[in-house]
């Protein structure tokens, strides 16, 4: 039973309220990220630089790292020490991470020198910076769960830093099980959510205009657009 | 350009002329490119996998180092025994940041009694020859200062013996210590100690704290690491076994360990962690830090990045 027709007079206000929490959430989502912003097929002309490729390359290498990590997870932590296929998958995982960190650092310096936090984009920078810190933590726990000499040495050294500030009492780098959980569950989850937030923020705000750029007047703009190839 | 326009809010990107851009196509091409590049690098360079060191391989390779370490575990003078929190209550142990001692504040949450956990319990749990039973009884019956006197005398004697070889130690009053440590060496060489330190009375186990701490107290592990250029003063944090890239992104963290005052401070770990925490926070807050946030404007690298745009403006 529904009474869709509301008494006249309050029609506009009621239309705004329709759908309860769900309706409100949908209206918020569409308002902040309309489809044209989420999946644009044009970009401002000033986006003519190679530096913009590094954000996409960072996302891509993160996806390859997660995917290869999932393949390692299929057979469990011991697999790659005994199987040549496993060893290759482990190598894929290592090199995708090296690429990920490399692309991310170039992306980071690029955004720094563009002062890309201007115009209400501070949160984009901050989520990116926390992504970097979370990636360092994820990579670190990855080194700890290799179950080889390197893990032994790194954990033996790293425990002193963590213990010195009290973190080691809870976050025990000598506990393989705990580190494996952080590496394959908690940190990837955090990094994934942060990355999604970061990228959605970029879509929402649009890419930052060049420093001191002046938006063309509307008539100028139509002239400029007409000139575009 | 007047100062006022420069101070104005950033213009809306939507107000600028546009160019066609296929987001999903670019993403797909990037993903394929990265996957291919990764496959190539992995095929060319593989990945490192040095065998871990076990108590068995350590005690077989350098039995004298193992014995010397076992004596310090028994006597309570090893690094772990003197560590303080989170492993034990050693008075005065624990690093500080100025007056703040977070290490002590966290408390002893992973209790380790090196004599009991690393030496005495494993000996008791293994089938004991009569000689070892007697030695254990003698040890337990002796007062603490007597035990200390035995272990420190034996440590000194081992230090003076050629190669630290227990067989060449001068005779002296070492009580039951030599019997205990030589039995522990036999257990370790047989591989029994690895299992005992890990199992701790359970079946399933993922926590390697005890065998790792024991290994870390000897010099064998560190010698192997040094040979692989992994030591702290070799910028080891950024290195990997073999010629592989390590965690190069830790360059700033490991940098502080190379210089004074950290290099010589006994609070180095805590101080460097505090410093890195402050720097990390600053990194996150760059957009709000006067001076730092203006560096892009001064350096003018942005003119290179957006050179097409600025060329069009002229
Ligand atoms: C998981 C790691 C990261 C991923 C996957 C990622 C991804 C992206 C992508 C796809 C874009 C849009 C394309 C582009 O402008 O390049 C972007 C923009 C941006 N990124 Fe990141 N990023 C990451 C880390 C970082 C870091 C470490 C920073 C800096 C601390 C950062 C700061 C920014 C900023 C400020 C923008 C906005 C640029 C604009 O408005 O033009 N990102 N990021």
What does this structure look like?
The complex is a heterodimer of chains A (229) and B (314). With 229 residues, chain A is an all-alpha fold. Chain A has helices at residues 11-17, 20-32, 35-38, 53-75, 79-82, 84-113, 122-144, 149-164, 176-205, 218-227; one strand at residues 42-44. Chain A has one domain: Cytochrome Bc1 Complex, Chain C (Up-down Bundle). Helices cover 70% and strands 1% of the residues of chain A. In chain A, helix 6 (84-113) packs antiparallel against helix 7 (122-144). Chain B folds into 2 domains: 55-227, no CATH class; 259-313, no CATH class. Chain B has 17 helices and 1 strand. Chain B has helices at 3-7, 23-45, 55-61, 63-75, 102-106, 114-125, 130-141, 144-160, 177-189, 192-199, 209-217, 220-227, 251-257, 268-284, 295-299, 301-305, 307-313; one strand spanning 18-20. Chain B is elongated, with a radius of gyration of 29 Å. At the A-B interface, strand 1, helix 4, helix 6, helix 7 and helix 8 of A face strand 1, helix 2, helix 5, helix 11 and helix 12 of B. Strand 1 (42-44) of chain A pairs antiparallel with strand 1 (18-20) of chain B, so a sheet runs across the interface. The structure holds protoporphyrin IX containing FE (HEM). The site of protoporphyrin IX containing FE has 27 residues of chain A, from helix 4, helix 6, helix 7 and helix 9.
């Amino acid at each position: 039973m529904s009474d869709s027709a509301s008494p006249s007079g309050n029609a506009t206000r009621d239309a705004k309220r329709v759908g309860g929490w769900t309706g409100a959430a949908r209206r918020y989502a569409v308002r902040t990220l309309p489809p044209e912003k989420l999946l644009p097929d044009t970009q401002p002309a000033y986006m003519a630089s190679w530096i913009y490729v590094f954000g996409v390359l960072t996302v891509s290498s993160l996806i390859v790292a997660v995917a290869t990590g999932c393949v390692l997870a299929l057979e469990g932590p011991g697999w790659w020490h005994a199987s040549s296929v496993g060893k290759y998958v482990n190598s894929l995982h290592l090199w995708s991470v090296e690429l990920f960190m490399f692309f991310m650092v170039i992306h980071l310096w690029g955004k720094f020198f563009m002062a890309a936090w201007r115009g209400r984009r501070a949160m984009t920078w901050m989520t990116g910076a926390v992504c970097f810190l979370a990636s360092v933590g994820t990579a670190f726990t990855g080194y700890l769960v290799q179950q080889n000499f390197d893990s032994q040495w790194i954990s033996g050294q790293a425990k002193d830093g963590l213990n010195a500030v009290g973190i080691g009492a809870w976050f025990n780098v000598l506990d393989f099980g705990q580190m494996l959980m952080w590496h394959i569950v908690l940190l990837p989850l955090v990094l994934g959510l942060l990355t999604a937030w970061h990228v959605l923020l970029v879509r929402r705000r649009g890419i930052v205009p060049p420093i001191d750029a002046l938006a063309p007047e509307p008539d100028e703009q139509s002239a400029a657009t007409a000139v575009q190839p | 350009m007047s100062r006022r326009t420069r101070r104005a809010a950033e213009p809306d990107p939507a107000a600028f002329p546009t160019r066609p851009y296929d987001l999903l196509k670019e993403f797909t091409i990037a993903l394929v490119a990265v996957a291919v590049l990764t496959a190539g690098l992995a095929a060319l360079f593989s990945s490192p996998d040095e065998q871990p060191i076990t108590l068995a391989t350590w005690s077989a390779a350098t039995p004298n180092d193992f014995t010397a370490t076992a004596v310090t575990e028994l006597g309570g003078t090893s690094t772990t025994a003197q560590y303080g929190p989170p492993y034990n209550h050693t008075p005065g142990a624990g690093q500080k940041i100025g007056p703040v001692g977070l290490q002590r504040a966290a408390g002893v949450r992973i209790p380790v009694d090196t004599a009991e956990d690393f030496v005495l319990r494993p000996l008791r749990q293994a089938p004991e020859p009569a000689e070892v039973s007697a030695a254990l009884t003698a040890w337990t019956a002796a007062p603490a200062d007597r035990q200390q006197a035995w272990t420190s005398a034996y440590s000194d004697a081992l230090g003076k013996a050629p190669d630290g070889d227990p067989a060449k130690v001068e005779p002296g009053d070492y009580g039951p210590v030599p019997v205990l440590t030589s039995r522990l060496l036999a257990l370790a060489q047989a591989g029994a100690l690895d299992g005992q330190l890990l199992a701790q009375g359970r079946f399933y186990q993922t926590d390697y704290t005890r065998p790792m701490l024991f290994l870390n107290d000897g010099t064998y592990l560190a010698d192997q690491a040094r040979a692989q250029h992994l030591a702290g003063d070799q910028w080891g944090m950024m290195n990997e076994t073999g010629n592989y890239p390590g965690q190069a992104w830790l360059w700033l963290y490991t940098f502080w360990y190379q210089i004074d005052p950290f290099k010589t401070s006994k609070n180095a770990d805590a101080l460097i962690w505090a410093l890195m925490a402050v720097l990390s926070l600053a990194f996150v807050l760059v957009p709000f830090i006067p001076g730092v946030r203006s560096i892009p404007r001064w350096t003018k690298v942005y003119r290179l990045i957006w050179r097409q745009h600025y060329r069009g403006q002229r």
